[in-house]
Design a protein that fits this description.
The complex is a heterodimer of chains A (214) and B (127). With 214 residues, chain A is an all-alpha fold. Chain A is 64% helix and 0% strand. In chain A, helix 2 packs across helix 4 and helix 2 crosses helix 7. Chain B is 76% helix and 0% strand. Chain B has six helices and no strands. The radius of gyration of chain B is 38 Å and the shape is rod-shaped. At the A-B interface, helix 2, helix 3, helix 6, helix 7 and helix 9 of A face helix 1, helix 3, helix 4 and helix 5 of B.
């Protein structure tokens, strides 16, 4: 028997739930490493959609995890799961980033559009791409919180309960906000379609930005 | 008049199903809710488009590895972390060995001191 086999009793950290890992991560960097691997992609994707470029997404993602690591000793769950805590850090950093630069997002929309589906004709492919471009433009005109909701649901693939933890709302309120967001998107796209006669060709301007409440 | 809660539940269910598996038959989900089909179709279409459009941008592997190294790659060879995962018997044995070593070292020093004192006393007496 090799009694000096050092890691024989080491638990498989990847199988632990977040609260257990967070406790360990307060004085064990390996546990923080597992949390990092668990959330790096989600946080990156979320920030990427909110900044619109890879360089800033990388810088802000790094800042999120450095801040999380620096403050994890003081983190206690108290109704805010670790994931929500990370997203709130990300949200605050992105908000500061926008404020410091005093600018609205400059989003290269084409980069966001997913891979082309297989279409029988080039015309159909073009039409599909135009529709997606119009949809992204419509999302960009939504109020901040509604954009955040869509990114959290579709990009980060979070449930209504998880989104609620991040946006500090109940699950029911998120369902309701989601419904209203879809209605707003539908109306916006229809309006743009009527206005310019071709979906997705309308320029995005600040004057078009909705100022309605949630 | 459509029940708003029913419609909200339907849209959430459709979205969750689509995000979990894009091949899901959404019609079967829509049928479970008492919502007129014409009210739902446009919105479900937007959900589908959102799903197809908002695809995640992957971080580069280089960035992920570099940041990981920045955060946890420089982990110190922390003796506490190393000892923590030793089997309990080995931890106890290591503790006993540590204490015994400490006692032996101290004892040896005391013996040496006593020997020096013993050698110095005759010299003082001769003087």
């Amino acid at each position: 028997m090799n009694i000096f086999k050092r890691k024989s009793k080491q638990p498989d950290l990847t199988k632990l739930e977040d609260p257990e890992l967070v406790l360990l991560a307060k004085d064990d960097q390996a546990a923080f490493g597992v949390l990092y691997e668990r959330y790096i992609e989600k946080i990156y994707k979320y920030i990427y959609y909110r900044t619109g470029n890879h360089q800033d997404a990388e810088d802000l993602t790094a800042a999120v995890f450095h801040r999380a690591m620096a403050h994890i000793e003081n983190y206690t769950e108290r109704g805010v799961p670790f994931q929500a805590w990370l997203y709130r850090i990300a949200h605050n950093l992105v908000a500061n980033w926008h404020r410091d630069r005093g600018r609205r997002k400059i989003i290269p929309l084409e980069e966001f559009i997913g891979p082309d589906s297989h279409f029988e004709s080039p015309d159909m492919a073009t039409e599909d791409k135009e529709e997606r471009t119009a949809l992204l433009a419509a999302i960009a005109r939504l109020p901040e919180e509604r954009q955040q909701l869509l990114y959290l649901k579709f990009v980060s693939n979070l449930s209504n309960a998880d989104v609620g933890d991040i946006l500090e709302r109940t699950e029911g309120a998120i369902k309701s906000l989601y419904h209203r967001t879809l209605l707003a998107l539908r109306d916006d796209i229809e309006m743009q379609h009527t206005r310019v006669g071709a979906v997705g060709r309308a320029p995005v301007s600040n004057s078009d930005k909705r100022t309605e409440g949630n | 008049m459509t029940n708003h809660n029913e419609l909200e539940n339907l849209l959430s269910a459709v979205t969750d199903a689509l995000l979990a598996d894009e091949r899901t038959n959404l019609d079967s989900i829509v049928k479970r809710y008492a919502v007129p089909r014409n009210e739902v179709e446009g919105l479900v279409g937007i959900v589908r488009k959102l799903h197809m459009t908002l695809v995640g941008a992957q971080p580069s592997r280089r960035f992920v590895n570099r940041l990981r190294n920045d955060l946890v790659g420089t982990q110190r060879a922390n003796i506490v972390n190393r000892v923590r995962y030793l089997p309990p018997r080995v931890q106890i044995a290591a503790g006993i060995a540590l204490v015994a070593g400490f006692v032996l070292l101290n004892r040896r020093r005391l013996v040496e001191d006593a020997r020096h004192e013993a050698q110095e006393i005759p010299l003082l007496q001769q003087q």
